[in-house]
Each structure stands twice: as C-alpha cells, then as structure tokens.
Amino acid sequence: MNADSCPQITEDALDRPLEGEERQLADCLLSSLIRPDAIVDKIIAGPKFIAVTAAGRMGLSSLLGSRPREHEKTLVHQMTAKPLREVAALIRRPSPFAVSLGFAALNAANTPDPTDVEPSNFPADDLIAGLGKNKITGLVGQFPFIESLKKRVGTFHLFELRDVADAVPRHQWERRLAELDVLAVTGTALLTRSMAWFLSRAPQAITVIVGPTTPCSAALFSRGADYLCGSVVTDMEKVALGIHAGLPFKKIKKNGGVIFAQWEKQG
C-alpha cells in the first residue's frame, strides 16, 4: 500500500492482504495477548458474528458477510482445542473469514473477567458527542446514532465506503482527517485492514474505537487510540444463541449477556 494513498478498503469476499502499517499493528496486537495459552473450547459461527470461547471467556468479531471458502470448511474444527495464540494468528491470513475468526480469538484472549468490569452507562455516542462538542468530529463506519450525533458536535464528517448521503468523497479523506479534533472508528476497520491507516492520518485527534469487534488491547493505545468502547460477554449461552440466530448486535445486547465497557488510555 502506498503510504500516501487512501487504502483500498473492501467489505466483500476479496482477499485482504496484510501489509505495511497494518501488518505492524497486527504484530503488535498478537505480541500483547493477555492469555495466549488458553485453549479454545468452542467456536460459534453465525451469519453476522463469530465467537470464540476459552477459559470461561468469550471473544466476538463481526464477519462483515464473509463465509468460509471451500478450503476453510473445516477451519472451525481445526482451530477448536488449539491455544488462543494459534487461532489469533489467523488475522495474518488474507481470507476475510479467517481474519474474523482470528480477531474473535484475539478478543477472547484479552477480554477481562466480567466480574471485574463495571458496565458503562455512558454510551459510546455520548462519549463521542462530549468530546466533539463544538469540535470538528469524524466518524468511520455506519452507526444508528449518526443523525443524532451530527446535532451534538461541531462540524461532522462521515467516512464511509458505501453510497451514503453527505459522506466525505474518498479523494478528500486525508485532508479531512488531518483537520479533525475527534475521530471515532469502527472496530471492524481492523477486519478491512484500514485501522492503522485511519489512526496515522489523524494523529492530532482524540480517537475512539467503537463496536463489539474492538479489542481490549494496549496495542491500540500505543498506535494512537485514546478510548476503546467495546463489549464484554457475561452470559456465553445467551450470546451464542443470538449469534446462531443471526441477530444484529443491538438485539444480541438487548437479550442480555453482554455489557458495554470503556477503557481510556492512561498517562
């Protein structure tokens, strides 16, 4: 990838090679796993999400529509009973399904004990709105709170690949990112190999990473993130049922078994 060009981000079944600054970020994430030797008990793959359970914890990742390819039909079986470090290493593969499975394992390795987590009663959009009050604020990804967020911040810029009204044109991304005071990025930017690119193009901004794919990892703080807004599974059975049923994350959360959590960069 040309360091001066916009990344070729896709949300389809095409290969997603790991190169340059995205590879450096992936290596940093893998080298800082908290429980790398925990053994995978179960892998739950649904239409929208995939989950990995190990040592009483569950990690989640969006699939962004990906499915196992023919040569990956037995991948879930192959990775069961393996240490999390081996499964998490799948994030280095180009296959979208393997990348999502790898991030679910990475999240299982890093997610804190639910009993040690104080649920956040401060939604991610409230955090972004508070940081972005009267400020230039950018959002990467589609979220249900976009319209309300626009009214709560100063100038608002949406960075979105799909054909969405008022989104910043791709050729203006770098210029607009360099102007931001606050940047919020979907955790799925890790899946599309674009997280490091966004973080490096807005080093001046206070940056928030949002969504259930977001890892609880200090590696993201070292790369420019200031806040991580993720999820911790408290009832693996309930969440597994929602994943199998193909529910969107909002409904999985509503059914119970997931709490929102926020981590702030220290120092």
TrEMBL record:
Lineage, uppermost ranks: Bacteria, Pseudomonadati, Thermodesulfobacteriota, Desulfobacteria, Desulfobacterales
Residue ranges constituting the Putative heavy-metal chelation domain according to the UniProt record: 129-258
Record-given protein name: Heavy-metal chelation domain-containing protein
Annotated ranges, domain DUF4213: 27-109
Pfam families per the UniProt record, alphabetical: DUF364, DUF4213
UniProt cross-references to InterPro entries, sorted A to Z: DUF364, DUF4213
Domain of life: Bacteria
SUPFAM superfamilies listed in its UniProt record: Dhaf3308-like (SSF159713)
Organism listed in the record: Desulfococcus multivorans DSM 2059
